[in-house]
Amino acid sequence: EEVRSSAMPGSESTKIRLRFKCQNLVKKDIMSPSDPIIVVDIMDGRSGLFQRLGETEWIKNNANPEFTKELELNYVFEKKQHLRITVLDVDNADQVPKEYTPNMAEGDLLGRMELTVAEIMGGKDWTVTRKLTAQVLNKDYGTVTIMGLKLEDSVRSDDLLVFQLNGIELAAKDHNVFTKASSDSFFTLSRVLPDRKELCTSEVHNQELNPKWKEQRVNFSELCGGDLRRDVRIDVSDKDSMTQADPIGLAVFPVERLLTKDLITLIDYKVPPRDIKAGFVQTRESAVYRTPTFMDYMADGLDVELVFAIDFTKSNGDPADPSSLHSRVGSAAGLTIEEAIPGLKVVRGPNWKWDDQDGGFGCVGEVVGPVGDNWVSVQWLDSRFSNSYRCGAEGEFDLSPHNTNRYQKAMMGVASTLMDFSKEKIIHAYGFGGKVDEGKTSFSFPLSRDVTVTGVKGLLDAYEQAMTNISFGESGTMMAEIVNRVVGLAKETVQNHPQKYYVLVILSDGDVDDIQDTIDAIVAASDLPISIITVGLTAPGHSEETYANWRVIDDGTMSIKDRSGKVLDRDTVNFIEIDEVNKKSDELTEIILHEFKQQLVQHFTLKNIRPKIWENDPVHNYRILQNIHPAEA
């Protein structure tokens, strides 16, 4: 389906390393524990095929191995990057198979599992532990723990170094009979590589051999490319109004010494024997200002909690009508390999023979990608089991497309994208515009008895329950009540759970009608850990005016005001329109994650909440760049 948004994103990528360990691996060797090795494959985004990322080292006789070899990859935040982890028992490292064989026999398979890179980086300290599975359902194959490590120096290239220097016992260059020998001292800081370039110059302190210079600011990308071990140069000179400045002394030293209070010796190379000490410089104060990233906050254990609001107004059409956005009409035909695109939702098909690997009849899975001739890999959303199934192989079809309507497709697409960043997988499931208690239309009601559900399957089950119990209300879309409900949730938890962040997902076929009330609620939400994603599910024949009010709210200028005149504290809303045109779902993923990431970081930045991971470095006093005080004139 074609996806349109007010802002098309660019992708953010970070080089990371993955490290692995296993616990309680099954025993394959008769006389001793297994000899494990881990093989990691990553799905190619274009072909949908898995390709070898790398292998760990081979460890002999160990059921609880901790592998030291790390595998490197480029983590692209706005993309779903699928990994397949296979643990094998081999007699030597040369026996590792080049390709995974679908439904391979027990043989030397110790276990396997699939997950996304986002699941790893969304875990606390970028670490997740998952159960291994193989051919015997419900058998304990042990666990694998995957740890993500960012590849970067202790500073980043876009960090800002803010520092103040003292001069100590500088050499005197001005001598006359009327005043004490002194210098009109100032310094210049220059990079050494790749070419010498002056980056900042201090003010002049007249007749001062122990000056305390004012604050200076230098970007690390210009200073040293983020490498603290790279040398910089300081030249301290005596200002002369009549002639060229007279050098006092210079020093070449690694950037990291500017972050300490070491005494740095100045040398006057112009005075024979060209190595005369000319005093010292010392850092009085220093700090590194940086822009926090989404990954910084996720490493702190940030938990994203989802709230879904589903439109039950009559404008969606009768569910018995195939053209309705809530249509219940579907097909149980076997899934072909051509139809099995990554992200497609499936259920067991006409030739299913794999017991309850899927979690049971009616449970939904997601296509990960093809793994061989007419075989496809599927991750089951309920059981979390993954395996490969036939899409025409042997003339059999294990899968069928899930009979999903437009709302179910949107629920699965958005929820599965954001669920990687949710620790507890909790979803608050609500509807609006439906008739509940005594036939009255409500604009905020729970979809099931349990307001909170777990995971994508829990959301789909709650929707199915609501479709049997709720009748559609009159057209008219009032959103203020559901937004205010989330505002209330956030206010209740922000003090005791500062790591909680809410995402309200509104799925609707029409525009917001109570626009000023909704704006008042959105302005209130902008001060809280809340993002609002509105997905417009347009029906055939819609006009450009269908979502005119939502476009006003999400116009990118943050100009809307509540009744009191208060404007948004930050961007909170992301409106996305999905047309009735065939389009890959990865575009929806990019748009959702791009704005969500920016909004989350902006909230914590405005609240001056530093990522706790910054506090793990005892050397650098990291501060938030956006909150830096104005530079002194």
Describe this structure in words.
The chain is built from nine helices and 33 strands. It is an alpha+beta fold and 633 residues long. Strands 1, 18, 24, 27, 28, 30, 31 and 32 form an eight-stranded mixed sheet that branches. It is flat. The two termini are 54 Å apart. The relative contact order is 0.12. The N terminus is likely disordered.
User: Which oligomerization state do the chains in this entry correspond to?
Assistant: single chain
Largest sheet report: 8 strands, mixed
Number of helices: 9
As residue ranges, the low-confidence spans are 1-10, 580-584
Give me the secondary-structure category. alpha+beta
Give the termini distance in whole angstroms: 54 Å
Q: Percent range for helical residues? A: 10-25%
Let me know the average pLDDT: 84
Task: Count the beta strands.
Answer: 33
Q: Approximately how much beta-strand content do the residues carry?
A: 25-35%
Shape: flat
Radius of gyration: 31 Å
Protein traits:
633 residues, alpha+beta, 33 strands, 33% strand, flat, disordered N terminus
Helix and strand arrangement:
Layout: E1 3-5, E2 13-23, E3 36-43, E4 50-55, E5 71-76, E6 82-89, E7 109-116, H1 117-121, E8 127-131, E9 143-150, E10 160-168, E11 185-191, E12 197-201, E13 216-219, H2 220-223, E14 231-238, E15 246-254, E16 263-268, E17 276-290, H3 294-299, E18 303-311, E19 345-348, E20 365-372, E21 375-380, E22 386-390, E23 399-401, H4 406-419, E24 426-432, E25 434-436, E26 440-442, E27 445-446, E28 452-454, H5 455-469, E29 471-472, H6 480-493, E30 500-508, H7 515-525, E31 530-537, H8 548-553, E32 573-578, H9 586-606, E33 622-624
Parallel strand pairs: 17-33, 18-24, 18-30, 30-31, 31-32
Antiparallel strand pairs: 1-32, 2-5, 2-9, 3-4, 3-6, 6-7, 8-9, 10-13, 10-17, 11-12, 11-14, 14-15, 16-17, 19-20, 19-23, 20-21, 21-22, 24-27, 24-28, 25-26, 25-29
